[in-house]
Amino acid sequence: MKKTINLFVLITGMLMVSATYATKSSIQASNVYSGFYLDLDLAGLSTSANDSFGHATSRGDYDGDGYMDLAVGIPRYSISFFGATLNETGAVLVFWGGSQGIQANDTTLLYQVNNGESEDFDWFGRALTSGDYNNDGIDDLVVGIPKEDVYDTISAGRVDAGAVNVFYGHATDFGDTADIIHEASGAQPETAPNDNDQFGDVLATGDFNDDGFDDLVVGIYLQDFGTTSSVVNGGKIAVYYGSAGGIDVDSYEYINQNTFDILDSNESGDLFGRSLAVGDFTGDGIDDLAVGVPGESINGLDDAGLVQLFLGSAVSGVSTNDKLYSQDTLNGALEADDGFGHALAAGDINGDGIDDLVVGIWKEDIGSVVNAGAVQVLMGTHGAAGPSNSFGPIITQDNSQVIGTAAAGDRFGQNVLLADLDHDGFEDLVVGSPRDHIIGGGATVDSGGGVNILFSNGTDISFINDLYFTANNIGDRYGYSVTAGHFRGVGRPTDLVVGIPGLHSVDNDSDAGAVEVMEFEFFDVIFKDGVDQ
User: Fold this and answer.
1) Rounded distance, CA 289 to CA 397, Å?
2) Whether pLDDT at 10 is above 60
3) CA 225 from chain center: how many Å?
4) Between vectors from CA 179 to CA 120 and to CA 106, what angle results, nearest 5°?
């Protein structure tokens, strides 16, 4: 039986967050973090039902002042202009960091007007990523608009083809306009986007050719192939390279599983590009790209899933030197419908200077418990061999040392993140499970959501002193997005931001959404005997 102790319940407005610690050693709550939440009401803006504030989050120093800023996607936000309302067109709210951290009254609202064709149900802000694409020392923000209808020179219009907006950071805020990128932008091949590609629903950033300019990756996992779209939702990725002028739509490459020299082949339902993670997994100083293919069939098992790793190259960028990872060759049982690779994260767990890869297996069955979910850790290694399965067994809530209870439909591992939350130089594992069923007091909170934090011990992921946070309202979906940053400045501990897009607002707008900001402090671990660790 798991031994846990509830330290406190944070209640702010309608948000109730429970924190649970393992009793292996006791940590004083005041030494760990202080939490508060942000939503549209607190920012002085009106809320509506289904806004989904917190569906996506990203961080970057968008004004170059040395403090990380927080971008929050509100993809179903409706905006009124001159008496007309654009329903669920979407928006992004940027909270500016400072010495006091994130403040609710210091924000900028971004939306698509003057940055593309704003329409009903565009869902601007459904995905976000940040990077310095023009290498000016100030981070830029890319906003996904997956349901944007695209009009180009060779088609009358493609419904929900998708696009992205690029907002370039400046010392005095973002400018009034942004670049718009979609398939067939610039000198891209004269092939029309497809209906329902939802370009922009998955985004990532890295420097794959080691030129000092960050590059943008777009996962187009709903892409069809064939003259009659005979391969449905096979998926592909688009890589756009950075330059002094920003993201260069004329310097790009498309990759799918039918690309020459690429392992495996395109099949319906593969969902190649459903998730992305960027890190230096080989220790050569150049970013590599991990691509999730959670719908891949392996040995006749549908949707078992795999991860395809593409090594970065100073010569060619994202190269065709690729590797495949699945539960067929790693620890764990290969099963249909596991969705291995639905979520990915990269970071340095053991401090060896090489990034490690975390894979979410969100529909892993644990015994007879269906879709309970799991996480697998692959440790990076020097050389072209790439990550290895040296960590050991998969991580689940069925492990007696991991807080929480594995329940059917939890989908533990739907979101994963690596970040150094205890300021020891080693990155820790954050697992978001927005469908987590919270069981306690004789009641079950369906899809309340939960976040597990498992700390690095300097060698691998430890289960000692792990944390577990939950929201106690049905359908909150606590943990739908997770990000971390130095919002209080470099040298201060990292703060964790958790998206809660299903939270009801103070005036009871359903699914208005919020985020919780956890300001972690330098850990002072006190064992039960009172001796500092």
Assistant:
1) 28
2) no
3) 27
4) 75
pLDDT of res. 415: 96
Torsion of CA 120, 125, 131, 136, to 10 degrees: 50
Q: What is the pLDDT of residue 336?
A: 96
Phi, psi (5° rounding) for residue 30? -65, -20
pLDDT at 441: 54
Average pLDDT over residues 272-278: 98
pLDDT score, position 458: 94
pLDDT score of 400: 81
pLDDT at residue 65, rounded to an integer: 94
- For tokens 């958790």, what's the residue? 498
Structure-block tokens of residue 110? 């971004």
3-state class percentages of the chain: helix first, strand second, coil last, to nearest 5: 0, 40, 60
Please name which of 473, 360, 488, 424 lies closest in space to residue 67, comparing C-alpha atoms: 488
Contact criterion met (CB below 8 Å) for 146 and 182: no
User: φ and ψ at 127, to 5 degrees?
Assistant: -140, 150
Rounded Cα distance between 93 and 260, Å, is 41
Three-state DSSP string of 208-251:
CCCCCCCEEEEEECCCCECCCCCECCCCEEEEEEEECCEEEEEE
Give me 389's structure tokens: 């399965």
238-262 burial: b if 16+ Cβ within 10 Å, else e = bbbbbbeebbbbebbbbbbbeeeeb
pTM (2 d.p.): 0.92
Residue linked to tokens 């994963």:
416
For residue 115, the model assigns a pLDDT of 52
Please state, for a pLDDT cut of 90, what percent of the chain lies above it.
Answer: 68
H/E element, 356: strand 356-361
In three-state secondary structure terms, 30 is helix
How many CB atoms are located within 10 Å of the residue 121 CB? 16
Half-sphere exposure of 74 (CA within 13 A, CB side): 35
- Please give the mean pLDDT across all residues of the chain: 87
From CA 44, how far away is CA 101, in angstroms rounded?
18
